[in-house]
Amino acid sequence: MTAHAEASLKGESGAPRLAERPWWPWLKRGLTLAFFCLVIYLIFVNARELEWARIGDALRKRPISSLLPAALVGILSYAVYTCYDLLGRRYTGHHLGTRKVLGTAFISYAFNLNLGSWIGGLGFRHRLYSRLGLATGELSRVIVFSMLTNWSGYLLLAGVVFLMRPIDIPEDWALGSGALQVLGGVLVCVAIGYLLLCAFSLKRVWTVRKHEIELPSARLAALQLLISSANWMLMAFMVYLLLQRQVAYPMVLAVLLIAAIAGVITHVPAGLGVLEAVFVAVLTPAVPQYEVLAALLAYRALYYLAPLGVATVYYLFFEARISKEDRRQQPG
Questions:
Q1: Under a CB-based contact definition with an 8 Å cutoff, are residues 243 and 89 in contact?
Q2: Which DSSP symbol is given to 170?
């Protein structure tokens, strides 16, 4: 080993770098565990102060027929999301059937919402596509393209919504209304910059950390922005219906977009507690807290938990079918 290589491993002082110390992985796991314990504790403490009786009454007073339109919007949202992977198929050129692609996207999305992107967006997609015979390179490109589709549409939609300033930011928040508008302008510029890059860049392949990334066509990039924006808008419309139209739709959309990025920053699976905290902070006292929480509980049941149950059954069926096909292909 050369002196330069040893220095890169140990650092300029000759001591091993922090990430190479034997106790560092355990410290990271301990801090992560402590963080989630703190989150659970805070949720528990705050939950004790909620008016659960009034929340339950608000839920019981909702006729089942009033939930049907919201459920239909949720189904439409899932259908739109699964199109992300159809765009990914067009981008990579792989030849998996449409039913397999849509099924994989549905299972991944349901687990992604409830358990986080590492398990759903990455873990299940990798597992399912590899079981279907997709090559590692194509699989990685589909996953990255799907994630890019989701967040490129978010950037465009959130930027436009924040520029419109449909909500008044609570005074105790670090980010004021003016700063939110500035952020909106930045997000719109980033989204438009991505579209222009795909349309006019002469360099079509970029290398990022030794990984080659090929720019999609302008038409494909535009479809990314359109489909992803439509999905975010459908999610917000579902909450709007469950709030029984007590709040203007642009306000619900803005709050959902803020809650989404807050959930990503805090790394809380399913944004548990984060979604509710943001909605309660912005919408009350215009809407009673128990009404907001009742709507969000219905939203989680319809958009998170019910699809997760369906996806779990479908995943088990998928694994059983693939295993059966593998046994048939084995000689003897």
A1: no
A2: P
| CA 198, chain centre distance (Å) | 23
Q: Flag whether the pTM goes above 0.70.
A: yes
SS3 165: coil
Residue with tokens 């290398």: 207
Token output for 169: 């930011």
Contact 104, 111 (CB under 8 A): no
At 86-124, the pLDDT tens digits run 999 999 999 999 999 999 999 999 999 988 888 888 888
What token pair was written down for 203? 């360099």
E strands, the chain, are 205-208, 211-214
Distance of alpha carbon 106 from alpha carbon 101, whole angstroms: 9
pLDDT of residue 10: 43
Distance CA 39, CA 320 (A): 37
Give the residue among 87, 88, 90, 85 at the shortest CA–CA distance from 107: 85
CB proximity list for 175: less than 8 A, separation 6 or greater:
169, 183
Element (H, E) at 8: helix 3-10
Nearest CA-CA partner of 282 in 316, 311, 248? 248
